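Hi D.,

Good news: the full-assembly prediction came through. Inputs first.
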Amino acid sequence: MDRLARGDFVNKHRGYRMQQVFKRPAALKDVQTHFCPGCHHGTIHRLVAEALDEFELQKKTIGVASIGCSVFLYHYFDIDVIEAPHGRAPAVATGVKRARPDSFVFTYQGDGDLAAIGTAEIIHAANRGEDITVIFVNNTTYGMTGGQMAPTTLPGQKTSTSPYGRRPEKDGFPIRVTELLSGLEGVAFAARTAVNTPKNLMDAKRQIKKAFQYQVEGKGFSFVEVLSACPTNWGMSAIEANERVGHEMVEYFKLGVFKDTADL
Amino acid sequence: MRHDMFMSGFGGQGVLLAGTLLSHAAIIEGKNVSFLPSYGVEKRGGAANCTVVIADGDVGSPVIGNPSVGVILNQLSMDKYAGKIKPGGICIVNSSLVDMSGFSREDIEVISLPMNSIALKVGEPRMVNMVAIGAYAARTGAVSLASLAEALKLSLPERNHKYIPANIRVLEAGAAEISQNSELAAL
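Then the structure:
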């Protein structure tokens, strides 16, 4: 007898039934993910899936997957997904949404994909105000390829290509993508969130939901940046990495809603 | 003299380390070797496999379509690669993680070892790969245990040299599984 059936059996005999109050979102497949211990992708995947469930979008969603540790999105989400070349997800999403305007289209990209090789695509999709939603996972590094310096790497941060730490005078300062995009007329909603504490996580859930609502109600381009931990490439334990998000990253990448044109 | 071996498991089992260890051992013995790794994109986990060719003369191709010996450490590898082992070849399989019930080939020799348990019994649950290589060396005679022990200094980074004695114990345990079954031990 499996665990759930056993619980049922016991409770029936005690005269009451257990009610399941928490389970895997329907938009997520029942598979084990490959993410490292302490990675925030799993959590962020869940928040996106919960939003898909809440708006009942599963059957009409076409996700656009990107390159990086996020690439396996198509294995984890139970939706139609198109895989885009590195950085091109916003361009692919533009084509998808314009060809199938009744579908719900989102991209899910890391900082290398979106802010490095994909800088042009995101700026122009945002500037055109495409009716898509972009989820941007920022862990200040190129994760899958071995922890190289990314446009979002913090000053002083040691990476495999900045072994002495990022030097702003030579390497520039990190790009604050949410603020950058907020300056574009075409952007309707832009927010930065994190999932390192229960409070931040609940706020991230709220903003992701709001971003989805923008598309569902046809109110324009929506964007949510989610600060994320990368214990493996930061050379930290899962706990230390989680702390770094709250202590270091939020200092430079401020949390908040930067644009909310429809004031939803 | 020529040996080729294909080893496959999941990322973290030490498949690539096993391959480099075998390669270094063969070099110590004065052989020519090719080592061809392949692994998935995941930072942790995923698939991992390698092909090692050892020869007195030229190695020729580092790519082997139908290996003489397949060392299979997990179910996915079994499903994918067991069929590629050439007829008359050997399949050394980790029965701790592989269900052999559906396997029907009669044209290869199957050596089924509970490698996870063997490693655990010696107190080193992480060294499943050493059980596999120890068994491979004992069965085929491709390299000696002594060469493998010596090769550990080359394959393991300095900071892990403190684990060499443990690795040797597990190599010996893997080899013992073969030599205990005297029919299997190489001449």
